[in-house]
Amino acid sequence: MAADDLLFVVLDGAGGCLVALDEPPLAGPVSRTGRDGVIHLVPAGRAVLRHDPPGNTGLRLLTGAGTVAVAGATVALSALLTPFVGAPVGAAGLALCGAGYRNGRSALGRRWLERHRALRPAEAEVFAGAFSAAQTVLMLWPRLRDLVQVATPRRELAGSLWTLAGLLHDRAALGEQLASLDRAAARLPAGAAALRTELAQRRALVRASLEDLAAAVGARVAALETLAGECVDLVRDERAVLAALEAIARADRSLGRVAPAAVAAPDETGELAAQTRAIVAAYRELTGLTRRATTGGEPAATG
Q: Superkingdom of the source (predicted)?
């Protein structure tokens, strides 16, 4: 895909998926979320995908206008000359209009198939996981780009998703072919040994191709998920380091508010308390007074 192409992904509520290089026509309300060129379209309510290729409406209008023009020319020629001249000219003109419409529709259909890949639920589930990983990378990349020195992974991620959609689409098509071969083999009569051998050969080839596709799909999904995991881990570790540095800074600020001289200075209250205890003890000894009993009342006199 070209570097400036957008990638559109539609995940419908029925489990299907459409991946496209052109924005697909959707009938009904649609919500859009985009991250760096990868656009996620979510149909709302009963919005459905229209499989009419873009430009087909204009082609029909053009063909209709041409048909009307040919019909008018046919009538005019028939009136001016003779129906034997007008009718063949009109028939030829209508044939040209029909051929032009068919060729134009075929070209539009080919472009649609080249730039749109529809996936069934089994394949859509695999693609959805890879798409989620790609969205995670795009979301976290602003935190990583200065470190990695890559402005954006848009081209790599969009290209990988587009290729993955193609692999999944081919896998589904080959799965259908394998099922068709299995059904054909089951219906063969017992005497068709040669044809049964050919079917077995084709089935083996299809299975081998399916294994290759499964390996390619797995590798591409694993690469996307690994990249997403690395991004998540790096951002998480970066946050942990920042939190540790902030904790150290807060501790340093708290320590800076405690004056070392105040820590080392003698406690005046403690000295006063010790001095008071010594004087009181001497006075009691001198006067013969004892401490007040713990049960209350006046102190007992001695002597």
A: Bacteria
